[in-house]
Amino acid sequence: MNLTELDIIKIIGNNLTYKGNVLKSIGDDCAVFKLEREYLVITTDMMFKSTHFPDILTPFQIGMRIITANLSDIAAMCAKPLGIVVSMGFNAPKKDFIMELTKGMDHMAREYKCPIVGGDTNNSKELTLCGTAFGITKNPIFRGGNIGEDIMITYDIGRVYCALEIIKMKDKGIINKRTFESLLEEYPNIIKKLTEPMARVNEGIVINEYINSCCDISDGLKKELFYIGNFEVYSKKLLNAIPKDVMEFCHRLNIDPIVAALNSGEEFELLFTTERSKEVIHKLKEECNGRAIKIGKVIEEGHYIDDIELKPGGYIHKW
Amino acid sequence: MNLTELDIIKIIGNNLTYKGNVLKSIGDDCAVFKLEREYLVITTDMMFKSTHFPDILTPFQIGMRIITANLSDIAAMCAKPLGIVVSMGFNAPKKDFIMELTKGMDHMAREYKCPIVGGDTNNSKELTLCGTAFGITKNPIFRGGNIGEDIMITYDIGRVYCALEIIKMKDKGIINKRTFESLLEEYPNIIKKLTEPMARVNEGIVINEYINSCCDISDGLKKELFYIGNFEVYSKKLLNAIPKDVMEFCHRLNIDPIVAALNSGEEFELLFTTERSKEVIHKLKEECNGRAIKIGKVIEEGHYIDDIELKPGGYIHKW
Lengths: 319, 319
What we know:
2 copies of one chain form a homodimer.
Chain A: H1 5-15, E1 31-34, E2 39-48, H2 49-52, H3 59-76, E3 80-90, H4 95-111, E4 116-123, E5 128-137, E6 150-154, H5 159-171, H6 177-186, H7 188-195, H8 201-207, E7 213-216, H9 221-228, E8 231-233, H10 235-240, H11 244-253, H12 257-263, E9 270-274, H13 277-288, E10 292-298, E11 303-305, E12 308-309
Parallel strand pairs in A: 3-4, 8-11
Antiparallel strand pairs in A: 1-2, 2-5, 3-5, 6-9, 6-10, 7-9, 8-10, 11-12
Helix pairs in contact in A: 3-4, 3-8, 5-6, 5-7, 8-13
């Protein structure tokens, strides 16, 4: 019988007993070390062609993604990126592929002001990318949240869920190639959030001093909410964070937009808690033309959307 | 036509144009950043089962190796390890395999006082390990060397070359399984240097303030000597760094031991230059029961072993 990923993680966790002087390791977006005058935060992400890259990604977008996925964890600590190393395994690659891949990486490195400073290249059975990003901050922001704080997210949510629905319909033969392509044209921003997501690096730096906890939305909003602790999310407020194209798409396909928002993963938006939501909104707007929306509150006990209790784990069904 | 590794590295180098604030990136053992009060050094190594792990390695030894290979680059900067992240890709692994692999990793993490603080696990087509180690120092030691300085190496050299010769003879059918196994028994320290090499982490920290340049011997002594600059190596001195079992093995197989020493890669010994060789020898002995041997000098012009000029690149033939 094959081991599940959870089995494997458990075995690994049990065997890695030496803890050294790390301040925070497994369980947050980054490992954190206290240096003399600052904190070092570090994260790693390994990706394989067959499991991590939807077919619609171009080589340039694959390069963008390995950088963004790593930088999103640096953003989640509200730290300033210092650099990233990227190791690459190739299976008889074409020159054009490597050109586009590395141009995509360089493009995002410049965007996040995070130089690619090393790596390793190898032959491998399929395209394999492993990035390790690191950053510096005087004040690392951990997961969690305190009772009474507002729960906020940056920008918007739901598009990645919709993009994956479009791909799923094509893969299952529910729509033909022509409908698929016209949907891609009709909803360019939905597709773009899947193919060219942005890590909220500047936003994390700007809000650092105003917030008390932070993580990125990589596993879907619902799962990340449970890391905060006890919460109450207001569906009316959450609807403010759902963009118009998602609302329209959901209406057309008879999807509950709240379901889309709660289950949308790899959004790379920041989910954070604060007592100073007004300042956060003001600062984000002033300093990076950014946006954040209050969607709920940290409460004493329980996990709610309006009056409905949420259970951890699993997909959230329509209600 | 397939691209060579050099082609690929060239394409990547041309496309990664954003340099940011890194002090040193590609071209040394680690990338180096200046922080407020110290320097951060960082390195990464990716390994695939089919290309990086000789069959004689046990899963425990594979775990040891991914840690040691990374830590050797930290040692080469004479820095103190802070931590390492290790991402792992598995192809339908057995529980025992993961147990042994991670125990080997933990064993070396403890040895080097370098906690494993994160990682990522995935399905992959073959065992894939990617480690990224990072360390701190007030005084990073780069590659290079100044005219007149002594060239030294830690401990000894040549065993890995001999171990690989034994394996090569078996793979080519020159020796049968029984002879192979009796050679393994006869030369346990030769085999151990291949299967359980040590990164010279403590040694690097101890000699930091006494030396001017340093690298680790991963590509073979000869190749690393050329990174120093111009040099003269004395074969008589180099023989002092070749252990007795290597001398005996070489004699038996009609191998020139100097050839073995110059071409032995993945030794993970440190190669460094200093004006204070006596202090280095004394300190190493006092503080970590360690050893270093002077093998030559940095000179004004040329690359010599005794009177014979060495050319860069390629295998070094008997003279």
